[in-house]
Amino acid sequence: MxxxxxxxxxxxxxxxxQYAKSGxxxxxxxxxxxxxxxxxxxxxxxVCLPIERRDLQKLLIGVRDSKQMTARQRVALAxxxxxxxxxxxxxxxxxxxxxxxxxxxxxxLAMRRALETTQLQPDCLLLDSLAWPEMNxxxxxxxxxxxxxxxxxxxxxxxxxxxxxxxxxxxxxxxDYGFAQHKGYGTPAHLAALHAHxxxxxHRMSFAPLRKLAGESA
Length: 218
Description:
Blueprint lengths: L2 H7 L4 H8 L5 E7 L8 E7 L7 H4 L11 H14 L2 E7 L1 H7 L1 H16 L5 E5 L10 E4 L2 H4 L1 H24 L5 H4 L5 H10 L10 H10 L1
Parallel strand pairs: 1-4, 4-5
Antiparallel strand pairs: 1-2, 2-3
């Protein structure tokens, strides 16, 4: 891939620089992975970047919406993000917590755990679409934030890499479901496995496809 094209795909620092001009020094981006899957945890990444570095986008070239990257690109860039970041963290909420709390509160629980792992008190938060009013910290919710903010994009990469690794582990524990391939998302192969074997302990029974399956088998 030409260097210019890769550079153009790197998320920007526009929002980070706007907040820095208003006096914010510790800006933390947050994003989640696995919110819509049928099985496994929801994960959240939290990243604080040294936005004053003029070479930051060059150091993190290619970091963007994790869904637009290959697995190999995400893994390589996750290590680079950890090297460059002032602080980073990953948190998660289990399928049982999702069923107990609901997906949005469970996602916020994963975000809180990720934030706590950074051991930083942020001046402000950059969030990808999901508002977090109960967190009494200045924040901005950015639609498609992982495409428009390098800090959020970096958080999305860490969350996605961590969750994919967890799904590979869970695939070994529950080999009948193909978790290593679909990562818990609702694919035809996943649905066929559910009909053949029933749900596993890591399936989200509060989600509509699982509720429907439970009703059919009642």
